Amino acid sequence: MSRYAYVQNNEIKEIHYDLPQSWKNISNFRNLANYPNELESLGWKVIQKDTTPFDNKEYKIVSTEYELKNGNVVEKNILEAIPVVTLFQPPVLTVEEIKEQERLMQERFTEEQWSNIRYMRDTAIKDVQWRYERYYRNERLGIEQTDSIQALDTYVQALADVTKQQDPFSITWPKLDY
Question: Which comes out higher in pLDDT, residue 49 or 113?
Fold first, then answer.
């Protein structure tokens, strides 16, 4: 990248792409690019490129460093490995393994459906509890009953028995007979 380096006491002091226009009271210093021996006598060196080959599919240049080698300034590429991206490869399953996974998924799906059925059953039972309270309150107060305790008990028991059905995906829900 840079083309010139100023070296003093075996140490690189400055790096430049182009020579400065003026340097240490020398005007038109840039014109010395055509006189390499003059530049060399003032401590300026043309930078040599590191020609070590590298695979640009496996490495990328992240920066450059400059070092003195045998009196020459060499630009050295700092490389970094390019991460290898591997695509996710799903496992190859046998027919038996696929069938087992399908069975397990169906089992989980069925368990989840039974959980939903129990929730709906419990909600339906809670929704009818106020009728029990009204029935017993009316009984204590000697007021005419609006519900049949037998019908309420039959309905709540039928709700409780819903989970005894075989298929959670085709539940027959009881109805409250007044």
Answer: 113
Prediction pTM value: 0.48
Q: Which domain holds residue 47?
A: 4-81
Domain final position from 28, 55, 81: 81
* H helix intervals, 16-94: 36-41
pLDDT for the residue 114? 97
Specify burial of residue 175 (Cβ count, 10 A radius: 0-12, 13-18, 19+): exposed
Does one domain contain both 55 and 111?
no
Pair (76, 108) in one structural domain: no
Cβ 121 vs Cβ 172: under 8 Å: no
Q: Is residue 88 part of a domain?
A: no
Q: Helices marked H in the chain — which ranges?
A: 36-41, 95-141, 149-160
Structural domain total, the chain = 2
Report if residue 10 sits inside a domain. Answer: yes
Quick: pLDDT tens for 60-71.
Answer: 889 888 888 888
Asked whether residue 108 is assigned to any structural domain, the reply reads yes
Query: What is the C-alpha to C-alpha distance for residues 113 and 119, in angstroms, rounded to an integer?
Result: 10
CB neighbours of residue 68 within 10 Å: 14
**Closest to 151 in 3D by CA, of 118, 171, 133, 128:** 128
Give the Cβ contact number of residue 167 at 10 Å.
9
Q: Give yes or no for a contact between 162 and 116, defined as CB atoms under 8 angstroms apart.
A: no
